[in-house]
């Protein structure tokens, strides 16, 4: 071997050692943080958007909404609505478009800690949770069992350490709390206890809203504090597809608005069951229903913070079962995000609702498809993006940590290519061809290693022999170890002891 070739090999070895040393350090720069600018994927053409929108407005003007609560009818008629021959509440095109113009285009979604605040609206994309799983994938048995209040608390403190979960909506139902009021209160308490990230919760009845927001006030330090910094949104489904209002959800919305709680108005129709089976027909029908939810809110309080959450769901028309993973539901939610953003409204859709029961290749395929498409489509808030399994019937600790890493890859793709004089690399190319003949260890490479590339901690990139020597562990095994480590060590204490005592003296806290 010539001296030149020996020197090149030594240089290459030193360069690899330098890169390994850099990789072992904590990253100084996150190349793919939440809040990347989406909108690159546009499944609908401009003419498609106009056709769907025009037909949705025609639905509201000619067909209208059934089962409208009396207070809603009274207020809507004052604002220009009409009642048609079928007794349905109808909104003219002009009325709906005036409401869209006056609706909130963005708002700050607060955390109890300001470092978690982010703006909902525009082109920024954030992933978070949703769901109401009644089962949890047990970490010991690997099988499903009924979800408990302890599970909910454990999920909450787990996501507290996962950077890509921008907010936390309770992902499971505490089936061991049978009373509806106790369930709503204990759910809210578990969220308060486990994280200071922005939150989302739901209410069985409107009467449950005030006591829980009182509890939020206490957590912030006194009466009225929540209104000044509303860190939790109400998850409401105000429309029962097809084209009917839900009285209980309407009452909850009114109660939440009285206390300044942001609304996530979710339309979750199912193709071929509660909406048309065609992609275009479903988008039209659900857009009309989500606009009806927007009208419901804004005739009372124009510009009120509301997430325009059109979540088109798919059922397997052969069996009637919900299909959370697949091309159709991915396409529908991406197109829904495009429609909402085209209207300029804070958008919410769903993704990653894997049908897979195990943490396996099916899970990865289904979650990656939908999260990438909805992120690239530019949804401001992507729900269900972490932890959900079994067509939303189950939640998994291991899936949460895998999904968090997956979302770093998704954010990296959404971020796209930075093109400037430095990244084009002309001088780095000159240096390589006139020097060592490679880019290993060069300053340009070392800089790009921090700013351009994401290095996964769970995904395996070792050669087969090394992988075998280290136990031939699959992703589920590695994720189990990481989730266990977090749950064994991360017990945040986010409630002042005096506040905790006050809550426990007032409510039947079971945690």
Offer a few descriptive terms.
511 residues; alpha/beta; TIM Barrel; 2 domains; nine-stranded mixed beta sheet; four-stranded mixed beta sheet; 19 strands; globular
Give the SSE map.
Elements: H1 3-24, E1 36-37, H2 46-63, H3 70-78, E2 82-83, E3 89-90, H4 93-102, E4 106-109, E5 118-121, E6 124-127, E7 135-137, E8 144-146, H5 149-159, E9 168-169, H6 180-194, E10 199-201, H7 209-220, H8 225-228, E11 232-236, E12 239-240, E13 244-245, H9 247-258, E14 263-267, H10 279-298, E15 306-310, H11 327-343, E16 347-350, H12 361-377, E17 381-383, E18 388-389, E19 394-396, H13 397-415, H14 421-424, H15 426-434, H16 443-451, H17 464-469, H18 475-489, H19 497-506
Parallel strand pairs: 6-17, 7-19, 9-10, 10-11, 11-14, 14-15, 15-16, 16-17
Antiparallel strand pairs: 1-6, 2-3, 4-5, 7-8, 12-13, 18-19
Helix pairs in contact: 2-10, 4-10, 5-6, 6-7, 10-11, 11-12, 12-13, 13-18
Total DSSP helices: 19
Report the major sheet: 9 strands, mixed
Structural class: alpha/beta
Give me the CATH fold name of the largest domain.
Answer: TIM Barrel
**From the coordinates shown, what is the CATH architecture of the largest domain?**
Alpha-Beta Barrel
How far apart, in Å, are the first and last alpha carbons? 70 Å
**Strand adjacency order, main sheet:** 1-6-17-16-15-14-11-10-9
What is the gyration radius calculated from CA atoms? Answer: 25 Å
> How many individual domains?
2
Could you please describe the fold and organization of this structure?
By secondary structure, the protein is an alpha/beta fold. The chain has 2 domains: 3-33 and 427-489, no CATH class; 101-387, TIM Barrel, CATH 3.20.20. The chain contains 19 helices and 19 strands. The strands form 5 sheets. Strands 1-6-17-16-15-14-11-10-9 form a 9-stranded mixed β-sheet. Strand 14 (263-267), helix 10 (279-298) and strand 15 (306-310) form a beta-alpha-beta unit. Helix 6 (180-194) packs parallel to helix 7, helix 11 (327-343) packs parallel to helix 12 (361-377) and helix 12 (361-377) runs parallel beside helix 13. The model has no long low-confidence stretch (mean pLDDT 94).
């Amino acid at each position: 071997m010539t001296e030149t070739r020996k020197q090149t090999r030594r240089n290459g070895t030193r360069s690899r050692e330098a890169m390994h040393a850099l990789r072992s350090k904590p990253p100084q720069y996150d190349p793919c943080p939440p809040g990347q600018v989406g909108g690159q994927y546009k499944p609908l053409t401009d003419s498609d958007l106009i056709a769907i929108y025009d037909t949705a407005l025609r639905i509201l003007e000619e067909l209208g909404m059934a089962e409208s609560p009396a207070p809603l009818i009274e207020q809507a008629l004052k604002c220009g609505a009409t009642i048609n021959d079928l007794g349905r509440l109808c909104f003219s095109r002009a009325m709906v478009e005036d409401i869209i113009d006056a609706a909130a285009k963005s708002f700050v979604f607060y955390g109890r800690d300001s470092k978690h605040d982010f703006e909902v609206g525009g082109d920024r994309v954030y992933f978070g949770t949703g769901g109401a799983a009644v089962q949890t994938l047990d970490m010991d048995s690997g099988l499903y069992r009924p979800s408990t209040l302890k599970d909910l608390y454990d999920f909450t403190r787990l996501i507290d350490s996962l950077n890509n979960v921008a907010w936390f909506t309770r992902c499971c139902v505490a089936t061991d709390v049978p009373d509806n009021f106790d369930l709503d209160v204990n759910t809210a308490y578990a969220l308060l206890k486990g994280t200071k990230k922005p939150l989302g919760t739901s209410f069985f009845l409107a009467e449950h809203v005030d006591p829980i927001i009182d509890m939020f006030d206490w957590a912030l330090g006194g009466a009225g504090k929540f209104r000044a910094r509303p860190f939790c949104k109400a998850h409401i489904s105000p429309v029962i597809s097809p084209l009917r209002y839900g009285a209980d959800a309407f009452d909850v919305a009114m109660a939440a608005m009285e206390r300044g709680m942001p609304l996530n108005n979710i339309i979750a129709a199912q193709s071929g069951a509660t909406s048309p089976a065609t992609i275009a027909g479903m988008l039209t029908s659900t857009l009309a229903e989500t606009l009806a939810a927007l009208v419901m809110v804004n005739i009372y309080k124009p510009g009120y913070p509301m997430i325009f959450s059109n979540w088109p769901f798919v059922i397997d028309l052969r069996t009637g079962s919900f299909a959370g993973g697949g091309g159709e539901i991915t396409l529908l939610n991406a197109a829904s995000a495009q429609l909402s953003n085209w209207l300029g409204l804070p958008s919410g859709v769903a993704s990653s609702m894997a049908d897979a029961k195990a943490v396996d290749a099916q899970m990865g395929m289904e979650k990656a498809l939908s999260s990438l498409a909805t992120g690239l489509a530019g949804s401001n808030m992507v729900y269900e993006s972490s932890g959900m399994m079994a067509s939303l019937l189950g939640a998994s600790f291991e899936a949460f940590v895998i999904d968090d890493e997956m979302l770093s890859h998704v954010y990296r793709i959404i971020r796209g290519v930075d093109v400037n004089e430095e990244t084009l690399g002309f001088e780095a190319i000159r240096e390589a061809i006139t020097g060592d003949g490679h880019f290993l260890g060069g300053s340009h490479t070392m800089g790009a290693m921090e700013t351009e590339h994401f290095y996964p901690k769970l995904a395996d990139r070792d050669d087969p022999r090394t992988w075998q020597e280290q136990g031939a562990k699959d992703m589920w095994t590695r994720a189990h170890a990481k989730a266990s480590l977090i749950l064994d060590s991360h017990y945040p204490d986010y409630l002042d002891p005096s506040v905790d005592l006050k809550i426990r003296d007032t409510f039947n806290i079971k945690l």
